[in-house]
Write a structure and sequence with these properties.
Two copies of one chain form a homodimer. The first copy, chain A, is 25% helix and 24% strand. The first copy, chain A, has 258 residues and is α+β, with helices and mostly antiparallel strands. Chain A has two domains: 144 residues, Nucleoside Triphosphate Pyrophosphohydrolase; 95 residues, Winged helix-like DNA-binding domain superfamily/Winged helix DNA-binding domain (Arc Repressor Mutant, subunit A), CATH 1.10.10.10. In chain A, the strands form two sheets. In chain A, strands 1, 2, 3, 4, 5, 6 and 7 form a seven-stranded mixed β-sheet that branches. A three-stranded antiparallel β-sheet of chain A has the order 8-10-9. At the A-B interface, strand 5 and strand 6 of A face strand 5 and strand 6 of B. Chain A binds a DNA duplex (27 and 27 nucleotides) through helix 4 and helix 6.
DNA sequence: GCAAAAGTGTTCATCGTACACCCATGG
DNA sequence: CCATGGGTGTACGATGAACACTTTTGC
């Protein structure tokens, strides 16, 4: 017997793609990929890119295909993990649709968009400049969970490197943490920032390329580094860059008001 | 139009229920609920309890219903969270079945089992005494993920209290950490164990009932406590009970071999 | 030379581990 | 009274935040 079970739902995948892109303020550099739908259901609304899962397709493959067909992005090598599954009855007006949400991370290379089918427009949108209620379906919930997941993961794992090119400076690395966790980290001491990665230096997981970055607008160009560790690796101790510490630092860094 | 989408999969839920029960060795006290199937597909194999999701049912409701119908357990108030969704093509021989796995925690009260339908037998099985390859479907994968999730969560959140009755002693609390993380914690100093919960004492989240436990076999009975904090609360600093520290303690605690 | 950013070393408070000691119970 | 487990306080080493200082670039 091939099948004594009747299909009872539609299974789809949606993908929350995060990247860091140039922006005027550091907190606006953290951006997410959104499409504007051009279909009857939730037409003209912003949504996460997604597709229905094919018969013989894994969720992972479906998620990467969604990015290919909707945005013209080659996500074959990107960091991708399952976020959670959203299946409340009534989340889609067309029937029982269950969506397996994913999070993807990509460095600021490889992010040239090509508009796909069933879509009016496609854009990178700063995560913090997002009125959550404008998203279609329950995609605002997905985005919220994704934001929390990545912020948490930044503290106890090495995913930050997934948002950088192969070779990068410590300033760029710091920019990742600043943009996603807290802008005031940007003004944190270099010495203490380095120490947060001392184990990586000691184990030759974060190795200097032996070359300087091409000089920026001002100041000494930073050393280039390369991360050769496992993608899924975790920190031995969690980062302590909590709000309390940052608040204190802010006060100290503020110009005297008197 | 009501539906222009055709169902393409079967959606089910499976539940990994953890509890702590009396056992000879402390590490065998951590147990998981397993059923022995009595159906054509994967008959006679151990599996996690699960059901198909109904048309107008949330995953959460389906998971709790699975425990009710398969094991006669009233899981309405239990801690329950989504673990992840398993949907590789071919994981079920009967067609494309997508299973949303959950983790549930329950104190050692309320764990009297009643065998449900489609099931040969039902039992609590020590987590560490489990030959993973004997489980049906990809339930071994689910269990592995669940084990990791709970071990991690024990370190950065307060879920441990979900495995205890309303009133408990610090010894019982320690037993949770010992059974799930490492047996050698059992021999850790009481003073340091208490300090791991000092913030809870300070914020009146872990309050003494003002009563002693009924005396055990030997030794001074412990003070009874009650946890009144939020279920989803997290620690401000992660527990540092890592293998290195525990290893050192073991060496020190061993009787001299000479 | 000066401002700005990168990089190095040191000081000091805080936290966690170890340890010493007292209390309450059963046998 | 003694073995066993519960409970309290303290000392010391490790960790991380704050700070002082040097190096390298553009203007």
């Amino acid at each position: 017997m091939e099948s004594n079970l009747n299909a009872n739902a539609v299974v789809a995948v949606d993908v929350v793609v995060f990247t860091l892109r140039p922006a005027t303020s550091i907190e606006d550099r953290w951006q997410v990929l959104l499409v504007r739908r051009d279909e009857p259901a939730f037409g003209n609304k912003l949504a996460l890119p997604g597709v229905l899962v094919r018969a013989e397709e894994t969720f992972d493959a479906a998620a990467r295909r969604a990015l290919q067909t909707k945005a013209g992005l080659d996500a074959r090598d990107w960091y991708l993990e399952q976020l959670g599954t959203f299946g409340n009855p009534g989340r889609d007006t067309r029937g029982r649709v269950v969506s397996v949400a994913h999070v993807a991370l990509v460095g600021s290379d490889d992010v040239d968009l090509v508009r796909g089918s069933g879509i009016q427009s496609i854009d990178w949108v700063p995560v913090r400049a997002l009125p959550a209620e404008t998203l279609a379906f329950d995609h605002a919930d997905m985005l919220r969970v994704a934001i929390n997941r990545i912020q948490a993961k930044l503290r106890y794992s090495w995913v930050a490197f997934q948002l950088l090119p192969d070779e990068f400076t410590l300033s760029q690395l710091r920019a990742v943490y600043s943009a996603i966790l807290d802008p005031s980290l940007q003004r944190l001491n270099t010495s203490n920032f380095r120490k947060a990665f001392s184990t990586l230096f000691a184990t030759d997981t974060l190795v200097p390329v032996g070359q300087r970055a091409t000089a920026g607008k001002v100041g000494r160009p930073g050393e280039l580094y390369r991360f050769v560790g496992p993608v899924g690796g975790t920190r031995t101790r969690e980062l302590r860059w909590d709000s309390a510490a940052r608040f204190r630092h802010n006060l100290a860094a503020l110009p005297d008001a008197s």
